[in-house]
UniProtKB/TrEMBL annotation:
Parts forming coiled coils: none
Record-linked InterPro entries: Lon_Prtase, Lon_prtase_N, Lon_prtase_N_sf, PUA-like_sf
TM stretches of this protein: none
PANTHER family from the UniProt entry: LON PROTEASE, LON PROTEASE HOMOLOG, MITOCHONDRIAL
Superkingdom per UniProt: Eukaryota
Protein name, per record: Uncharacterized protein
One GO term describing the cellular component: mitochondrial matrix
GO function terms (MF aspect): ATP binding; ATP-dependent peptidase activity; serine-type endopeptidase activity; single-stranded DNA binding
Length: 162
C-alpha cells in the first residue's frame, strides 16, 4: 500500500439532501436521518468538523419570454444562407440609419428584428430599398448580444420563428 504525505491528501465534502420537510421528532438527537445519513445536528455537536458552505440559490434555466405579436421590428437584409428558427448567426451592419434604429430598439429593451434573405440578383447591402428585393418569408430574431463598433454594429441573432 502506498502512503502519501498528509499535504497531498484532500478531503472532499459529501452533501446529503433529503426530501423530508422536517427534522423528525424532537426526542431524536442521534444526528442521523431515517435514510442513515448525518443531519445538521451531527455537525453542530462536533466543533472540529468543517462547516457547510452557505446555501446558494439554484440557477435554473427559465424560458425566454419572446412576444407572440411584435408588430414593429427593424428589417435586416442578409445574403448568402438563410437564418432558420433555432439557428444562431453573426451579422455585421454598416448602414447608419439601420444602426441607429437597432441601438434605439436595444435601449428600449426590445432587441428583436426581422431577418430576410435577399434575392440572388440584388446588390450586397444591409438595407433593402423595396420589398421586391427580399424573399417573402423571413425569421423573427432575438438579439442577445451586440458589439457597437462606432461606424458598424455586430449582432448575434437567434432565430425564433418564421
Amino acid at each position: 500500500m502506498l502512503k502519501l504525505p498528509s499535504s497531498q491528501i484532500q478531503f472532499i465534502p459529501k452533501y446529503a439532501f433529503s426530501t423530508s420537510s422536517g427534522k423528525g421528532s424532537s426526542d431524536d438527537d442521534s444526528g442521523i436521518d431515517p435514510d442513515g445519513l448525518p443531519t445538521s445536528n451531527a455537525h453542530e455537536s462536533d466543533p472540529s468538523s468543517t462547516p457547510l458552505p452557505p446555501a446558494v440559490p439554484p440557477l435554473a434555466l427559465s424560458p425566454q419570454n419572446i412576444p407572440e405579436n411584435f408588430p414593429i421590428v427593424p428589417v435586416i437584409a442578409i445574403s448568402g444562407s438563410p437564418l432558420f428558427p433555432k439557428f444562431v448567426k453573426m451579422i455585421e451592419i454598416t448602414d447608419s440609419r439601420l444602426i441607429s434604429l437597432i441601438r434605439r430598439k436595444i435601449k428600449l429593451n426590445a432587441p428583436y428584428a426581422g431577418i430576410f434573405l435577399k434575392k440572388p440578383n440584388t446588390e450586397q447591402s444591409d438595407v433593402a430599398n423595396s420589398m421586391d428585393e427580399l424573399h417573402r418569408v423571413g425569421t423573427f430574431v432575438h438579439i442577445p448580444e451586440w458589439d457597437d463598433l462606432g461606424s458598424k454594429i455586430r449582432l448575434l441573432v437567434i432565430g425564433h420563428r418564421r
